[in-house]
Protein backbone atom coordinates (compact mmCIF):
# COMPACT_ATOMS: atom_id res chain seq x y z
CA UNK A 1 0.00 0.00 0.00
CA UNK A 2 1.27 3.44 -0.92
CA UNK A 3 1.18 5.26 2.29
CA UNK A 4 3.73 7.28 4.20
CA UNK A 5 4.78 6.36 7.71
CA UNK A 6 3.36 9.57 9.04
CA UNK A 7 -0.03 8.90 7.51
CA UNK A 8 -0.05 5.43 8.93
CA UNK A 9 0.66 6.66 12.45
CA UNK A 10 -1.95 9.38 12.13
CA UNK A 11 -4.48 6.76 11.14
CA UNK A 12 -3.44 4.51 14.00
CA UNK A 13 -3.77 7.37 16.45
CA UNK A 14 -7.21 8.15 15.08
CA UNK A 15 -8.27 4.55 15.60
CA UNK A 16 -6.72 3.82 18.95
CA UNK A 17 -6.16 6.95 21.01
CA UNK A 18 -9.71 8.24 21.75
CA UNK A 19 -10.89 4.75 22.69
CA UNK A 20 -7.86 4.10 24.85
CA UNK A 21 -8.16 7.43 26.65
CA UNK A 22 -11.77 6.71 27.61
CA UNK A 23 -10.86 3.15 28.59
CA UNK A 24 -8.00 4.47 30.73
CA UNK A 25 -10.19 7.09 32.41
CA UNK A 26 -13.24 4.93 33.06
CA UNK A 27 -11.71 1.48 33.58
CA UNK A 28 -7.97 1.49 34.31
CA UNK A 29 -7.82 4.60 36.47
CA UNK A 30 -10.75 3.55 38.73
CA UNK A 31 -9.23 0.10 39.27
CA UNK A 32 -5.84 1.43 40.27
CA UNK A 33 -7.16 4.25 42.37
CA UNK A 34 -9.46 1.76 44.08
CA UNK A 35 -6.30 -0.03 45.13
CA UNK A 36 -4.89 3.30 46.32
CA UNK A 37 -8.05 4.27 48.26
CA UNK A 38 -7.88 1.03 50.21
CA UNK A 39 -5.04 2.56 52.26
CA UNK A 40 -7.15 5.49 53.44
CA UNK A 41 -9.79 6.12 56.03
CA UNK A 42 -12.22 8.16 54.02
CA UNK A 43 -15.86 9.08 54.34
CA UNK A 44 -16.19 10.82 50.99
CA UNK A 45 -15.25 14.45 51.51
CA UNK A 46 -11.70 15.38 50.61
CA UNK A 47 -10.92 17.01 53.97
CA UNK A 48 -11.12 13.89 56.10
CA UNK A 49 -9.10 11.49 53.98
CA UNK A 50 -6.34 10.10 56.14
CA UNK A 51 -3.65 7.62 55.18
CA UNK A 52 -3.83 4.63 57.51
CA UNK A 53 -1.52 2.19 55.74
CA UNK A 54 -2.77 -1.34 56.18
CA UNK A 55 -5.38 -0.24 58.73
CA UNK A 56 -8.30 -1.23 56.52
CA UNK A 57 -6.73 -4.60 55.82
CA UNK A 58 -6.29 -5.23 59.54
CA UNK A 59 -9.92 -4.25 60.04
CA UNK A 60 -10.87 -6.63 57.23
CA UNK A 61 -9.25 -9.56 59.04
CA UNK A 62 -11.04 -8.71 62.29
CA UNK A 63 -14.44 -8.02 60.73
CA UNK A 64 -16.70 -10.89 61.81
CA UNK A 65 -18.99 -10.42 58.79
CA UNK A 66 -16.21 -10.81 56.18
CA UNK A 67 -15.67 -14.59 56.58
CA UNK A 68 -19.42 -15.09 56.22
CA UNK A 69 -19.58 -13.04 53.03
CA UNK A 70 -16.73 -15.12 51.57
CA UNK A 71 -18.44 -18.38 52.59
CA UNK A 72 -21.73 -17.15 51.10
CA UNK A 73 -20.03 -16.30 47.82
CA UNK A 74 -18.35 -19.68 47.54
CA UNK A 75 -21.56 -21.42 48.60
CA UNK A 76 -23.24 -19.74 45.63
CA UNK A 77 -20.31 -20.65 43.37
CA UNK A 78 -20.41 -24.34 44.29
CA UNK A 79 -24.18 -24.75 44.24
CA UNK A 80 -24.51 -22.81 40.98
CA UNK A 81 -21.76 -24.78 39.26
CA UNK A 82 -23.35 -28.08 40.31
CA UNK A 83 -26.94 -27.03 39.63
CA UNK A 84 -26.26 -25.39 36.30
CA UNK A 85 -23.80 -27.97 34.97
CA UNK A 86 -25.92 -31.00 35.88
CA UNK A 87 -29.11 -29.57 34.39
CA UNK A 88 -27.43 -27.93 31.38
CA UNK A 89 -25.57 -31.16 30.60
CA UNK A 90 -28.73 -33.22 30.96
CA UNK A 91 -30.70 -30.92 28.66
CA UNK A 92 -27.83 -30.64 26.16
CA UNK A 93 -27.50 -34.41 25.87
CA UNK A 94 -31.27 -34.88 25.74
CA UNK A 95 -31.66 -32.32 22.96
CA UNK A 96 -28.82 -33.64 20.82
CA UNK A 97 -28.50 -37.40 21.32
CA UNK A 98 -32.18 -38.28 21.39
CA UNK A 99 -34.02 -37.23 18.32
CA UNK A 100 -36.66 -34.89 19.64
CA UNK A 101 -38.60 -33.02 17.00
CA UNK A 102 -39.38 -29.95 19.07
CA UNK A 103 -35.77 -29.51 20.30
CA UNK A 104 -35.41 -25.98 18.81
CA UNK A 105 -38.45 -24.88 20.82
CA UNK A 106 -36.82 -25.97 24.09
CA UNK A 107 -33.60 -24.22 23.14
CA UNK A 108 -35.38 -20.93 22.50
CA UNK A 109 -37.37 -21.15 25.73
CA UNK A 110 -34.55 -22.28 28.02
CA UNK A 111 -32.25 -19.52 26.84
CA UNK A 112 -34.66 -16.64 27.36
CA UNK A 113 -34.06 -16.06 31.12
CA UNK A 114 -30.39 -15.41 30.26
CA UNK A 115 -31.30 -12.07 28.74
CA UNK A 116 -33.79 -11.01 31.40
CA UNK A 117 -32.83 -8.20 33.73
CA UNK A 118 -31.64 -9.32 37.14
CA UNK A 119 -34.13 -6.86 38.63
CA UNK A 120 -37.01 -8.58 36.86
CA UNK A 121 -35.72 -12.05 37.79
CA UNK A 122 -35.16 -11.01 41.39
CA UNK A 123 -38.59 -9.46 41.88
CA UNK A 124 -40.31 -12.32 40.11
CA UNK A 125 -38.64 -14.84 42.40
CA UNK A 126 -39.29 -12.74 45.47
CA UNK A 127 -42.96 -13.30 44.63
CA UNK A 128 -42.50 -16.99 44.05
CA UNK A 129 -41.03 -17.18 47.57
CA UNK A 130 -43.60 -14.81 49.08
CA UNK A 131 -44.84 -16.42 52.34
CA UNK A 132 -48.54 -15.68 51.86
CA UNK A 133 -49.19 -15.59 48.10
CA UNK A 134 -46.04 -17.24 46.73
CA UNK A 135 -45.96 -20.27 44.51
CA UNK A 136 -43.56 -22.29 46.67
CA UNK A 137 -45.66 -22.22 49.82
CA UNK A 138 -48.94 -22.67 47.93
CA UNK A 139 -47.40 -25.64 46.17
CA UNK A 140 -46.26 -27.19 49.45
CA UNK A 141 -49.75 -26.71 50.89
CA UNK A 142 -51.27 -28.23 47.81
CA UNK A 143 -49.30 -31.45 48.21
CA UNK A 144 -49.96 -31.50 51.96
CA UNK A 145 -46.56 -30.38 53.22
CA UNK A 146 -47.68 -27.15 54.93
CA UNK A 147 -45.20 -27.89 57.70
CA UNK A 148 -42.34 -27.15 55.27
CA UNK A 149 -43.78 -23.78 54.24
CA UNK A 150 -41.71 -20.89 55.55
CA UNK A 151 -40.92 -17.26 54.79
CA UNK A 152 -38.05 -18.40 52.56
CA UNK A 153 -36.22 -15.11 52.08
CA UNK A 154 -36.88 -13.99 55.65
CA UNK A 155 -35.44 -17.12 57.20
CA UNK A 156 -31.79 -16.90 58.19
CA UNK A 157 -31.04 -20.52 57.28
CA UNK A 158 -33.03 -20.69 54.06
CA UNK A 159 -32.52 -17.25 52.55
CA UNK A 160 -29.15 -17.98 50.95
CA UNK A 161 -30.07 -21.40 49.49
CA UNK A 162 -33.23 -19.75 48.15
CA UNK A 163 -31.06 -17.50 46.00
CA UNK A 164 -29.53 -20.47 44.18
CA UNK A 165 -32.69 -21.49 42.33
CA UNK A 166 -33.25 -18.13 40.57
CA UNK A 167 -29.57 -18.06 39.56
CA UNK A 168 -29.75 -21.58 38.14
CA UNK A 169 -33.07 -20.79 36.47
CA UNK A 170 -31.56 -17.72 34.82
CA UNK A 171 -28.25 -19.34 33.88
CA UNK A 172 -28.95 -22.72 32.37
CA UNK A 173 -29.79 -21.69 28.80
CA UNK A 174 -26.42 -20.20 27.93
CA UNK A 175 -24.42 -23.16 29.21
CA UNK A 176 -26.79 -25.62 27.62
CA UNK A 177 -26.13 -23.95 24.25
CA UNK A 178 -22.35 -24.01 24.87
CA UNK A 179 -22.48 -27.73 25.58
CA UNK A 180 -24.79 -28.38 22.62
CA UNK A 181 -22.23 -26.61 20.41
CA UNK A 182 -19.53 -28.92 21.72
CA UNK A 183 -21.58 -32.09 21.41
CA UNK A 184 -22.55 -31.40 17.81
CA UNK A 185 -18.83 -31.19 16.97
CA UNK A 186 -18.18 -34.70 18.26
CA UNK A 187 -17.77 -37.15 15.42
CA UNK A 188 -20.69 -39.59 15.29
CA UNK A 189 -18.31 -42.45 14.52
CA UNK A 190 -17.12 -42.50 18.15
CA UNK A 191 -20.62 -43.37 19.28
CA UNK A 192 -20.98 -45.97 16.55
CA UNK A 193 -17.70 -47.56 17.61
CA UNK A 194 -18.77 -47.48 21.26
CA UNK A 195 -22.09 -49.04 20.29
CA UNK A 196 -20.33 -51.90 18.50
CA UNK A 197 -18.11 -52.45 21.53
CA UNK A 198 -21.28 -52.85 23.55
CA UNK A 199 -21.04 -49.68 25.61
CA UNK A 200 -24.26 -48.61 27.33
CA UNK A 201 -25.66 -45.10 26.94
CA UNK A 202 -24.33 -44.26 30.38
CA UNK A 203 -20.83 -45.52 29.52
CA UNK A 204 -20.93 -43.65 26.23
CA UNK A 205 -21.75 -40.48 28.13
CA UNK A 206 -18.83 -40.84 30.57
CA UNK A 207 -16.27 -42.32 28.17
CA UNK A 208 -17.03 -40.41 24.96
CA UNK A 209 -19.12 -37.31 25.58
CA UNK A 210 -17.49 -35.99 28.76
CA UNK A 211 -13.83 -36.33 27.68
CA UNK A 212 -14.45 -34.88 24.23
CA UNK A 213 -16.58 -32.12 25.68
CA UNK A 214 -14.04 -31.24 28.35
CA UNK A 215 -12.92 -27.91 26.80
CA UNK A 216 -16.51 -26.64 26.83
CA UNK A 217 -17.17 -28.00 30.32
CA UNK A 218 -14.05 -26.28 31.61
CA UNK A 219 -14.96 -22.95 30.06
CA UNK A 220 -18.52 -23.21 31.34
CA UNK A 221 -17.36 -23.86 34.91
CA UNK A 222 -14.81 -21.04 34.79
CA UNK A 223 -17.42 -18.70 33.39
CA UNK A 224 -19.92 -19.54 36.13
CA UNK A 225 -17.24 -19.07 38.80
CA UNK A 226 -16.07 -15.72 37.44
CA UNK A 227 -19.53 -14.28 36.91
CA UNK A 228 -20.65 -15.44 40.36
CA UNK A 229 -17.67 -14.03 42.24
CA UNK A 230 -17.80 -10.78 40.27
CA UNK A 231 -21.55 -10.35 40.12
CA UNK A 232 -23.47 -12.40 42.70
CA UNK A 233 -24.24 -9.25 44.67
CA UNK A 234 -26.75 -8.01 42.10
CA UNK A 235 -29.30 -10.74 42.76
CA UNK A 236 -28.56 -10.49 46.50
CA UNK A 237 -29.16 -6.74 46.44
CA UNK A 238 -32.45 -7.11 44.58
CA UNK A 239 -33.85 -10.05 46.54
CA UNK A 240 -32.66 -9.64 50.13
CA UNK A 241 -30.35 -6.62 50.34
CA UNK A 242 -27.98 -8.83 52.36
CA UNK A 243 -30.50 -9.62 55.07
CA UNK A 244 -32.03 -11.05 57.15
CA UNK A 245 -29.40 -10.18 59.73
CA UNK A 246 -26.53 -10.33 57.18
CA UNK A 247 -27.43 -13.94 56.38
CA UNK A 248 -27.13 -13.41 52.62
CA UNK A 249 -24.45 -10.74 52.36
CA UNK A 250 -21.86 -11.62 49.74
CA UNK A 251 -18.60 -9.71 49.27
CA UNK A 252 -20.01 -7.32 46.66
CA UNK A 253 -23.19 -6.45 48.55
CA UNK A 254 -21.17 -5.85 51.70
CA UNK A 255 -18.88 -3.54 49.71
CA UNK A 256 -21.94 -1.64 48.49
CA UNK A 257 -23.27 -1.33 52.02
CA UNK A 258 -19.94 -0.19 53.48
CA UNK A 259 -19.13 2.28 50.71
CA UNK A 260 -22.43 3.67 49.45
CA UNK A 261 -24.72 3.26 52.47
CA UNK A 262 -22.35 3.81 55.40
CA UNK A 263 -19.83 5.96 53.48
CA UNK A 264 -16.73 4.00 54.50
CA UNK A 265 -15.22 4.42 51.05
CA UNK A 266 -11.71 3.38 52.06
CA UNK A 267 -12.93 0.20 53.69
CA UNK A 268 -15.23 -0.49 50.73
CA UNK A 269 -12.22 -0.26 48.40
CA UNK A 270 -10.39 -2.75 50.62
CA UNK A 271 -13.26 -5.20 50.22
CA UNK A 272 -13.02 -4.55 46.47
CA UNK A 273 -9.33 -5.49 46.50
CA UNK A 274 -10.23 -8.66 48.37
CA UNK A 275 -12.82 -9.56 45.70
CA UNK A 276 -10.24 -8.94 42.97
CA UNK A 277 -7.58 -11.07 44.67
CA UNK A 278 -9.95 -13.92 45.54
CA UNK A 279 -11.52 -14.10 42.11
CA UNK A 280 -8.15 -14.08 40.29
CA UNK A 281 -6.73 -16.69 42.68
CA UNK A 282 -9.79 -18.90 42.29
CA UNK A 283 -9.57 -18.77 38.52
CA UNK A 284 -5.84 -19.60 38.55
CA UNK A 285 -6.32 -22.54 40.92
CA UNK A 286 -9.29 -23.85 38.95
CA UNK A 287 -7.40 -23.62 35.69
CA UNK A 288 -4.60 -25.63 37.24
CA UNK A 289 -6.91 -28.37 38.48
CA UNK A 290 -9.00 -28.60 35.34
CA UNK A 291 -5.94 -28.94 33.13
CA UNK A 292 -6.32 -32.21 31.29
CA UNK A 293 -4.47 -33.75 28.46
CA UNK A 294 -6.30 -33.05 25.28
CA UNK A 295 -8.16 -36.21 24.32
CA UNK A 296 -7.69 -37.59 20.86
CA UNK A 297 -9.15 -40.94 19.99
CA UNK B 1 -33.57 -49.76 13.16
CA UNK B 2 -35.38 -51.70 15.82
CA UNK B 3 -36.18 -49.89 18.99
CA UNK B 4 -36.43 -51.67 22.29
CA UNK B 5 -39.34 -50.95 24.60
CA UNK B 6 -36.89 -49.31 26.97
CA UNK B 7 -35.71 -46.88 24.31
CA UNK B 8 -39.21 -45.84 23.38
CA UNK B 9 -40.13 -45.36 27.01
CA UNK B 10 -36.85 -43.51 27.53
CA UNK B 11 -37.60 -41.13 24.69
CA UNK B 12 -41.07 -40.41 26.03
CA UNK B 13 -39.72 -40.11 29.55
CA UNK B 14 -37.00 -37.66 28.55
CA UNK B 15 -39.72 -35.23 27.55
CA UNK B 16 -41.05 -35.01 31.09
CA UNK B 17 -38.11 -33.03 32.53
CA UNK B 18 -37.96 -30.93 29.35
CA UNK B 19 -41.64 -30.04 29.63
CA UNK B 20 -41.36 -29.40 33.38
CA UNK B 21 -38.48 -26.98 32.81
CA UNK B 22 -40.39 -25.27 30.02
CA UNK B 23 -43.21 -24.67 32.48
CA UNK B 24 -40.74 -23.49 35.13
CA UNK B 25 -39.36 -20.92 32.68
CA UNK B 26 -42.56 -19.76 31.02
CA UNK B 27 -45.06 -19.83 33.84
CA UNK B 28 -43.46 -17.12 36.03
CA UNK B 29 -43.14 -14.85 32.98
CA UNK B 30 -46.67 -15.59 31.90
CA UNK B 31 -47.87 -15.05 35.46
CA UNK B 32 -46.24 -11.63 35.52
CA UNK B 33 -48.34 -10.63 32.51
CA UNK B 34 -51.49 -11.99 34.16
CA UNK B 35 -50.74 -10.19 37.42
CA UNK B 36 -50.37 -6.88 35.63
CA UNK B 37 -54.10 -7.01 34.78
CA UNK B 38 -55.32 -7.82 38.28
CA UNK B 39 -56.39 -5.49 41.04
CA UNK B 40 -54.54 -5.86 44.35
CA UNK B 41 -57.52 -7.56 45.95
CA UNK B 42 -57.60 -10.04 43.11
CA UNK B 43 -53.86 -10.74 43.42
CA UNK B 44 -54.40 -11.77 47.04
CA UNK B 45 -57.54 -13.73 46.34
CA UNK B 46 -56.27 -15.51 43.28
CA UNK B 47 -52.53 -14.96 42.93
CA UNK B 48 -51.73 -17.61 40.30
CA UNK B 49 -54.78 -17.83 38.08
CA UNK B 50 -56.24 -15.85 35.21
CA UNK B 51 -57.53 -12.30 35.79
CA UNK B 52 -61.29 -11.83 35.87
CA UNK B 53 -61.23 -8.87 33.51
CA UNK B 54 -58.61 -7.22 31.36
CA UNK B 55 -57.86 -4.24 33.56
CA UNK B 56 -55.37 -1.63 32.34
CA UNK B 57 -55.57 0.40 35.55
CA UNK B 58 -52.15 -0.83 36.75
CA UNK B 59 -50.46 0.53 33.64
CA UNK B 60 -52.22 3.84 34.07
CA UNK B 61 -51.11 3.94 37.72
CA UNK B 62 -47.52 3.12 36.82
CA UNK B 63 -47.60 5.93 34.29
CA UNK B 64 -49.27 8.55 36.49
CA UNK B 65 -48.31 7.71 40.10
CA UNK B 66 -44.80 6.48 39.48
CA UNK B 67 -43.94 8.51 36.41
CA UNK B 68 -42.60 5.42 34.72
CA UNK B 69 -42.81 7.14 31.34
CA UNK B 70 -39.77 9.24 32.16
CA UNK B 71 -37.87 6.14 33.33
CA UNK B 72 -38.68 4.38 30.07
CA UNK B 73 -37.40 7.43 28.23
CA UNK B 74 -34.20 7.56 30.34
CA UNK B 75 -33.54 3.87 29.77
CA UNK B 76 -34.14 4.35 26.08
CA UNK B 77 -31.67 7.26 25.86
CA UNK B 78 -29.02 5.45 27.92
CA UNK B 79 -29.42 2.34 25.76
CA UNK B 80 -29.19 4.13 22.41
CA UNK B 81 -26.40 6.54 23.38
CA UNK B 82 -24.47 3.77 25.09
CA UNK B 83 -24.78 1.36 22.17
CA UNK B 84 -23.81 3.96 19.53
CA UNK B 85 -20.88 5.20 21.60
CA UNK B 86 -19.64 1.64 22.12
CA UNK B 87 -19.58 1.13 18.36
CA UNK B 88 -17.86 4.44 17.64
CA UNK B 89 -15.12 3.54 20.09
CA UNK B 90 -14.82 -0.16 19.29
CA UNK B 91 -14.91 -0.40 15.49
CA UNK B 92 -11.75 1.66 14.74
CA UNK B 93 -9.80 -0.03 17.54
CA UNK B 94 -10.90 -3.51 16.47
CA UNK B 95 -9.87 -2.74 12.89
CA UNK B 96 -6.49 -1.31 13.87
CA UNK B 97 -5.69 -4.23 16.16
CA UNK B 98 -6.71 -6.81 13.57
CA UNK B 99 -5.45 -5.29 10.31
CA UNK B 100 -2.92 -2.48 10.82
CA UNK B 101 0.53 -3.76 11.70
CA UNK B 102 1.95 -1.97 14.67
CA UNK B 103 4.10 -2.92 17.60
CA UNK B 104 2.17 -3.78 20.75
CA UNK B 105 -1.08 -4.66 19.00
CA UNK B 106 -1.08 -8.04 20.75
CA UNK B 107 -0.52 -6.41 24.14
CA UNK B 108 -3.28 -3.90 23.58
CA UNK B 109 -5.67 -6.68 22.63
CA UNK B 110 -4.71 -8.69 25.71
CA UNK B 111 -5.20 -5.63 27.89
CA UNK B 112 -8.73 -5.07 26.59
CA UNK B 113 -9.67 -8.73 26.75
CA UNK B 114 -8.33 -9.32 30.25
CA UNK B 115 -10.48 -6.43 31.46
CA UNK B 116 -13.45 -8.74 30.86
CA UNK B 117 -12.32 -10.92 33.75
CA UNK B 118 -11.66 -8.16 36.28
CA UNK B 119 -14.39 -7.50 38.86
CA UNK B 120 -15.31 -3.89 38.14
CA UNK B 121 -16.93 -3.46 41.54
CA UNK B 122 -13.58 -2.24 42.92
CA UNK B 123 -13.50 0.49 40.29
CA UNK B 124 -17.01 1.73 41.05
CA UNK B 125 -15.94 3.62 44.18
CA UNK B 126 -13.35 5.82 42.40
CA UNK B 127 -15.66 6.06 39.40
CA UNK B 128 -18.33 7.55 41.64
CA UNK B 129 -15.99 10.40 42.66
CA UNK B 130 -14.59 10.77 39.15
CA UNK B 131 -18.10 11.23 37.72
CA UNK B 132 -18.85 13.67 40.51
CA UNK B 133 -15.76 15.75 39.60
CA UNK B 134 -16.73 15.68 35.93
CA UNK B 135 -20.32 16.72 36.81
CA UNK B 136 -21.52 13.49 35.26
CA UNK B 137 -22.89 11.97 38.45
CA UNK B 138 -26.67 11.60 38.50
CA UNK B 139 -26.61 12.19 34.78
CA UNK B 140 -27.91 9.68 32.25
CA UNK B 141 -25.25 10.68 29.71
CA UNK B 142 -22.56 10.04 32.29
CA UNK B 143 -24.11 6.63 32.85
CA UNK B 144 -24.20 6.00 29.09
CA UNK B 145 -20.43 6.72 28.85
CA UNK B 146 -19.73 4.36 31.75
CA UNK B 147 -21.88 1.68 30.11
CA UNK B 148 -20.18 2.13 26.73
CA UNK B 149 -16.69 1.80 28.21
CA UNK B 150 -17.75 -1.20 30.31
CA UNK B 151 -18.80 -3.08 27.17
CA UNK B 152 -15.73 -2.02 25.14
CA UNK B 153 -13.64 -5.13 25.89
CA UNK B 154 -16.40 -7.53 24.88
CA UNK B 155 -17.28 -5.49 21.77
CA UNK B 156 -13.67 -5.14 20.60
CA UNK B 157 -13.22 -8.84 21.18
CA UNK B 158 -16.20 -9.86 19.07
CA UNK B 159 -15.52 -7.33 16.31
CA UNK B 160 -11.84 -8.27 15.85
CA UNK B 161 -12.87 -11.86 15.23
CA UNK B 162 -15.45 -10.68 12.70
CA UNK B 163 -13.05 -8.35 10.92
CA UNK B 164 -10.48 -11.14 10.68
CA UNK B 165 -12.84 -13.03 8.37
CA UNK B 166 -12.93 -10.21 5.80
CA UNK B 167 -10.55 -11.03 2.91
CA UNK B 168 -7.51 -8.72 2.88
CA UNK B 169 -7.68 -8.45 -0.90
CA UNK B 170 -10.82 -6.32 -0.65
CA UNK B 171 -8.99 -3.70 1.39
CA UNK B 172 -6.02 -3.75 -0.95
CA UNK B 173 -8.23 -3.33 -3.99
CA UNK B 174 -9.97 -0.38 -2.33
CA UNK B 175 -6.61 1.19 -1.46
CA UNK B 176 -5.41 0.81 -5.04
CA UNK B 177 -8.59 2.57 -6.17
CA UNK B 178 -7.34 5.49 -4.10
CA UNK B 179 -9.38 5.07 -0.96
CA UNK B 180 -7.69 6.42 2.18
CA UNK B 181 -7.43 4.15 5.24
CA UNK B 182 -10.29 6.14 6.76
CA UNK B 183 -12.33 5.41 3.66
CA UNK B 184 -11.43 1.72 3.83
CA UNK B 185 -12.56 1.59 7.43
CA UNK B 186 -15.82 3.39 6.79
CA UNK B 187 -16.77 2.16 3.31
CA UNK B 188 -15.30 -1.33 3.20
CA UNK B 189 -14.78 -2.74 6.69
CA UNK B 190 -17.85 -1.33 8.42
CA UNK B 191 -20.38 -2.54 5.86
CA UNK B 192 -18.70 -5.94 5.54
CA UNK B 193 -18.73 -6.54 9.29
CA UNK B 194 -22.32 -5.34 9.63
CA UNK B 195 -23.51 -8.75 10.77
CA UNK B 196 -21.11 -8.72 13.72
CA UNK B 197 -21.89 -5.10 14.45
CA UNK B 198 -25.61 -5.85 14.62
CA UNK B 199 -25.05 -8.85 16.90
CA UNK B 200 -22.89 -7.02 19.44
CA UNK B 201 -25.12 -3.98 19.34
CA UNK B 202 -28.25 -5.96 20.17
CA UNK B 203 -26.41 -7.65 23.00
CA UNK B 204 -25.02 -4.38 24.34
CA UNK B 205 -28.44 -2.76 24.06
CA UNK B 206 -30.09 -5.55 26.06
CA UNK B 207 -27.30 -5.29 28.61
CA UNK B 208 -27.76 -1.51 28.99
CA UNK B 209 -31.55 -1.74 29.08
CA UNK B 210 -31.37 -4.34 31.87
CA UNK B 211 -28.48 -2.94 33.88
CA UNK B 212 -29.23 -2.21 37.51
CA UNK B 213 -26.24 -1.88 39.81
CA UNK B 214 -24.23 0.89 38.15
CA UNK B 215 -27.45 2.84 37.72
CA UNK B 216 -28.13 2.35 41.43
CA UNK B 217 -24.74 3.81 42.33
CA UNK B 218 -24.39 6.55 39.71
CA UNK B 219 -27.94 7.93 39.55
CA UNK B 220 -29.60 9.57 42.53
CA UNK B 221 -32.62 11.72 41.77
CA UNK B 222 -35.83 9.97 40.78
CA UNK B 223 -36.30 12.00 37.60
CA UNK B 224 -33.08 10.41 36.29
CA UNK B 225 -34.04 6.84 37.21
CA UNK B 226 -33.72 4.22 34.55
CA UNK B 227 -36.42 1.58 34.33
CA UNK B 228 -34.50 -0.88 36.51
CA UNK B 229 -34.25 1.67 39.30
CA UNK B 230 -37.87 2.72 38.95
CA UNK B 231 -38.95 -0.91 39.28
CA UNK B 232 -36.73 -1.38 42.30
CA UNK B 233 -38.30 1.73 43.81
CA UNK B 234 -41.88 0.60 43.08
CA UNK B 235 -40.98 -2.80 44.53
CA UNK B 236 -39.75 -1.35 47.81
CA UNK B 237 -42.77 0.99 47.96
CA UNK B 238 -45.06 -1.95 47.39
CA UNK B 239 -43.95 -3.45 50.70
CA UNK B 240 -46.02 -0.68 52.32
CA UNK B 241 -48.61 0.29 49.73
CA UNK B 242 -49.19 -3.24 48.39
CA UNK B 243 -49.29 -1.85 44.87
CA UNK B 244 -48.37 -5.25 43.43
CA UNK B 245 -50.40 -4.81 40.30
CA UNK B 246 -48.49 -1.67 39.45
CA UNK B 247 -45.23 -3.49 40.09
CA UNK B 248 -46.22 -6.25 37.67
CA UNK B 249 -47.20 -3.68 35.07
CA UNK B 250 -43.77 -2.06 35.34
CA UNK B 251 -42.03 -5.45 35.07
CA UNK B 252 -44.00 -6.11 31.90
CA UNK B 253 -42.98 -2.73 30.49
CA UNK B 254 -39.34 -3.61 31.18
CA UNK B 255 -39.47 -7.05 29.63
CA UNK B 256 -41.55 -6.47 26.50
CA UNK B 257 -38.76 -4.77 24.49
CA UNK B 258 -36.41 -7.63 25.40
CA UNK B 259 -38.99 -10.19 24.30
CA UNK B 260 -39.46 -8.36 21.00
CA UNK B 261 -35.70 -8.20 20.34
CA UNK B 262 -35.38 -11.86 21.27
CA UNK B 263 -38.25 -12.81 18.97
CA UNK B 264 -36.56 -11.08 16.03
CA UNK B 265 -32.90 -11.79 16.75
CA UNK B 266 -33.09 -15.02 18.78
CA UNK B 267 -30.37 -16.77 16.75
CA UNK B 268 -27.94 -13.85 16.77
CA UNK B 269 -28.33 -13.26 20.50
CA UNK B 270 -27.91 -16.91 21.46
CA UNK B 271 -24.93 -17.39 19.12
CA UNK B 272 -23.29 -14.14 20.10
CA UNK B 273 -23.49 -14.86 23.81
CA UNK B 274 -22.29 -18.44 23.44
CA UNK B 275 -19.36 -17.41 21.24
CA UNK B 276 -18.47 -14.57 23.56
CA UNK B 277 -18.40 -16.91 26.54
CA UNK B 278 -16.44 -19.65 24.78
CA UNK B 279 -13.70 -17.47 23.36
CA UNK B 280 -13.57 -15.16 26.32
From TrEMBL, chain A:
CDD domains: TM_PBP2. GO terms for biological process: transmembrane transport. Gene3D superfamilies: MetI-like (1.10.3720.10). The chain crosses the membrane at residues 9-32, 74-96, 108-128, 158-180, 220-239, 259-289. InterPro entries: ABC_transporter_permease (IPR051393), MetI-like (IPR000515), MetI-like_sf (IPR035906). Keywords: Cell membrane, Membrane, Transmembrane, Transmembrane helix, Transport. It is a multi-pass membrane protein. It holds the Pfam family BPD_transp_1. Residues 70-286 form the ABC transmembrane type-1 domain. One of its GO terms (cellular component) is plasma membrane. Its main location: membrane. It is found in: Cell membrane. Belongs to the binding-protein-dependent transport system permease family. PANTHER family: ABC TRANSPORTER PERMEASE PROTEIN, INNER MEMBRANE ABC TRANSPORTER PERMEASE PROTEIN YCJO. This is ABC transporter permease. It comes from Oceanobacillus arenosus.
UniProtKB/TrEMBL annotation, chain B:
One of its GO terms (cellular component) is plasma membrane. One of its GO terms (biological process) is transmembrane transport. The chain crosses the membrane at residues 12-34, 76-97, 109-129, 141-163, 184-206, 243-265. It is a multi-pass membrane protein. It holds the Pfam family BPD_transp_1. Residues 72-265 form the ABC transmembrane type-1 domain. Gene3D superfamilies: MetI-like. It is found in: Cell membrane. Its main location: membrane. Keywords: Cell membrane, Membrane, Transmembrane, Transmembrane helix, Transport. InterPro entries: BP-dep_ABC_trans_perm, MetI-like, MetI-like_sf. Belongs to the binding-protein-dependent transport system permease family. This is Sugar ABC transporter permease. It comes from Oceanobacillus arenosus. The lineage of its organism: Bacteria, Bacillati, Bacillota, Bacilli, Bacillales.
Amino acid sequence: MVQSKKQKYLFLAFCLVPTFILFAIFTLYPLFSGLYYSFFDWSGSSSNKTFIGFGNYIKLFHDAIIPNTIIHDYFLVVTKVIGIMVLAMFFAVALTQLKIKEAPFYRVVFFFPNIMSVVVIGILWTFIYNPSIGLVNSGLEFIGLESLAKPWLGDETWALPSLVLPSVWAGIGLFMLMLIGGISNIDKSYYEAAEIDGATQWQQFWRVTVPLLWPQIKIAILYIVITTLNGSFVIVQVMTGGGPNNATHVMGSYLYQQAFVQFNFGYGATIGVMILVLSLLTVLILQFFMRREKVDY
Amino acid sequence: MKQSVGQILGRGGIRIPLILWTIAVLYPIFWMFLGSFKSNAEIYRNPWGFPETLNWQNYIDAWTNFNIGSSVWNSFIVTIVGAVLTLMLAIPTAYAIERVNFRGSKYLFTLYVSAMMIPMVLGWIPLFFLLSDLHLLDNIFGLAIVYAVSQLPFTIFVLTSFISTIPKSLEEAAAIDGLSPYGVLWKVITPLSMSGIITVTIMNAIQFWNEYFMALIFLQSSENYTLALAIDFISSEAQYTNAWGTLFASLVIAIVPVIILYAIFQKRIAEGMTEGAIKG
